[in-house]
TrEMBL record, chain A:
Keywords: ATP-binding, Cell membrane, Membrane, Nucleotide-binding, Transport. The keyword Membrane applies. Residues 37-279 form the ABC transporter domain. PANTHER family: ABC TRANSPORTER I FAMILY MEMBER 17 (PTHR43423:SF1). GO terms for molecular function: ATP binding; ATP hydrolysis activity; phosphate transmembrane transporter activity. Residues 9-26 have a biased composition (Polar residues). NCBIfam families: 3a0107s01c2. It holds the Pfam family ABC_tran. This is Phosphate ABC transporter ATP-binding protein. It comes from the Archaea. CDD domains: ABC_PstB_phosphate_transporter. It comes from Salinadaptatus halalkaliphilus. GO terms for cellular component: membrane. Residues 1-33 are annotated as: Disordered.
TrEMBL record, chain B:
This is Phosphate-specific transport system accessory protein PhoU. InterPro entries: PhoU, PhoU-like_sf, PhoU_dom. Belongs to the PhoU family. Plays a role in the regulation of phosphate uptake. It is found in: Cytoplasm. Homodimer.
Amino acid sequence: MATDHESEPTTNDAQLITTDVQATGTGRNGEPTEPVVTARDLDVHYGAEQALNDVDIDIPEHRVTAIIGPSGCGKSTFLRCVNRMNDQIDSCRIDGELSFHGKNVYDEDVDPVALRRKIGMVFQKPNPFPKSIYDNVAYGLRVQGMAGDVDLDAAVERALRGAALWDEVNDQLDSSGLDLSGGQQQRLCIARAIAPDPEVILMDEPTSALDPVAASKIEDLIDDLADEYTVIIVTHNMQQAARISDKTAVFLTGGNLVEFDETPTIFENPADDRVEDYITGKFG
Amino acid sequence: MSRTEYQHQLERLREDVLEMSDVVCQRLRRALEAYERTDEDLAQRVIDGDHEINQLYLDLESDCIDLLALQQPVAGDLRFIASTFKIITDLERIGDLAVNLAEYTKRARRERYPDIDIAHIGTETVLLVEDAMAAYATNDADATADIAATDDEIDSLCERASRIVVLDLVDTRGGDDALLEDVSRMLLTIRDLERVGDHAVNIAARTLYMVDNDDELIY
């Protein structure tokens, strides 16, 4: 990366959080909400290729924000910027600002590990560890040094309940996570992501590898998760974005964020003709 | 189904709705003609032909449901199909009102109300339906306000006609069952024509929503 932020981790959770941010919208209860994640003039390059171009966005808390767009438009790149997953890509260069509660996550004093405790991630393909169900969930707490601070059994149960998996696995916590069905594995990964009690959950096409029934359970779960967490989900499935999200961001070719609005507005009356063409299938 | 075929289906849906509206307007004109000439044969043909309009409605309803279920339309496409779904209901109801008019023809004693020009009111309502469908056909949102305004004029015509009927009833002493039947039949005729105008406004309202996402005329 052009910006080397792999220096000594010095930030704790409290330092990550500031409150001098303007409210940007209303939550599900109609109350004003603050932006949790904010991008300003965000450019991302992979070598000479530009993946994101001058992105400005304010993502509100406790709502589901969907990111849609054609392949190669930069939506996954944006997601991976939020918790610095792009740090691992040498050719990646990030300019501009991407803030979590007003603090630029690319400042030198931000610890990526601490950041990822507050911003969890769920991937396209379920990726449980070859460990027991219990250990899969407890893993995050252990590696982040939180296991000694909490009642681990209670934390695991809380995370599995939060992922709507507890009732299905509470009598087999010592079984391998790999023995679960695909949909259960993905919910196990969600349980693992929420175990450290993050604020934001990033999801990169979390149902694309699942059958419709399993996908439906995940969609219901995402709706429930928004009561406690801010959810940002990348999806290729526009109907899914329409079903489950409160706000939708549309990225188009060149890494441009073309439109960001309430989901009903995007899918009923988008302002930009290019968005209309994309979501109606006239432009791919 | 490819997205190209999907776009063709949307175009065909609009063409089929316009064909249905042509049939409906033709039936309404024939019902008016039968009423004016007291032509019971023509009236009966309008009545017998209603099943054709009902079938057109059912076919188009099925087409809309298929598009919604299989293509999951959004944005302008969604507003077009949702509006079309409502508009075909208005057209089917106009067809029913044409049947009502044809049925009145069989028993109408028009000489009782020489000052009521049913032909004029009826022609105005048919023209209004045709204007509304032209707006739908060409995505002409600007025309929809004129259609709502013209309907207000038709409402005034109907109100004046109804007043004539009521005043005649008040002035008539010793009215019998035949009189009461004439009164109720004429009032129903006027009301049905007024409702045709209302359906034209509904079509205009859905067209405005379809084109501009504006629900101003819907409620």
